[in-house]
Specification:
CATH topology of the largest domain in chain A: Arc Repressor Mutant, subunit A
CATH architecture of the largest domain in chain A: Orthogonal Bundle
Oligomer: homodimer
CATH class of the largest domain in chain A: Mainly Alpha
Largest sheet of chain A: 3 strands, mixed
Strand content of chain A: 15-25%
Order of helices and strands of chain A: HHHHEEEEHEH
Radius of gyration of chain A: 18 Å
Number of domains of chain A: 2
Largest interface: A-B, 37 and 37 residues
Helix content of chain A: 40-55%
Amino acid sequence: MAQTSEREILKKLRADGHKLTPQRRAVVRALWLSHRHMTPAQVHTAVCEEREDVGLVTVYRTIRMLAEMDLVCEISTDGHQRTYLLRRPPEHHHHLVCSVCGRVVDFTSNDVERLQQRLASETGFSIESHIVEFVGRCVACQQRCQTTDTAH
Amino acid sequence: MAQTSEREILKKLRADGHKLTPQRRAVVRALWLSHRHMTPAQVHTAVCEEREDVGLVTVYRTIRMLAEMDLVCEISTDGHQRTYLLRRPPEHHHHLVCSVCGRVVDFTSNDVERLQQRLASETGFSIESHIVEFVGRCVACQQRCQTTDTAH
DNA sequence: TTGAGTGCAAAGTGTTTGCATGATC
DNA sequence: GATCATGCAAACACTTTGCACTCAA
């Protein structure tokens, strides 16, 4: 169901009829190495540290490809900026994002599944997915900025 | 805490040092009349039905002003499009969005509050807000497109 | 009267697309 | 070697900003 290694992801790409170019490998590697959600621009920066001949456009295209294959998880941390994280087991997770440093902690909860069932039966909706995201300050950032009020 | 009438919103704007122009009244009214999340463009369209001399820019500026005063609730239905809904009591709510027609159903749940407390104590985060959003198909859209798989 | 608010057009974002070149299978 | 992928630049959609004019207080 979900891949457990970088190599398996590449295998899936090939199985899906995509070519394994060095650029794609690099993008997958960058995503694989990061355990935080990244914007396409951040992925691009990371990729370029390894090899400079990768265009931002290719990063976008590769991410889109991965998203279509459901291999990455997309969230919009701020509404105008999408970030991506490789899906790894355990499968379904939610996010707790630090509003100061951007750190993302994943968590799972069956409260959410229960709520989903309740909603489905109450509204008649056929629920396909959900976004559950908490925003706050991680311990480190709380200590660092005790007085600041908003970190927009 | 939360305003219960259009007039109270205008009062808050004035109290916050903003002038009550006809354009602003029109934007507030459009938001007030709608019980669905709207994009700035949709708000603009609605406003223009009443008076044509309101620019899209003004809608953006007014919405931003309302957002800064925390009088509207912003969500990004799709990641690249923000929608707004006037905050009305009961205060905190979540969303169930139809992926086909875009209809938004609000709901409240104390499961979410409970989960938030659990997370705070487990991770040490000081949680400031959360986004809980379910996406699915409403009853009407389920009937309309029984065979279709994706609606993008 | 006067500073805040407006509309227009232009500039900024982040993202996608057209096209010729280049690489994978 | 045919096809798919790349990179560049240009196009896009949404949002913000600069500026002269206008209006609410």
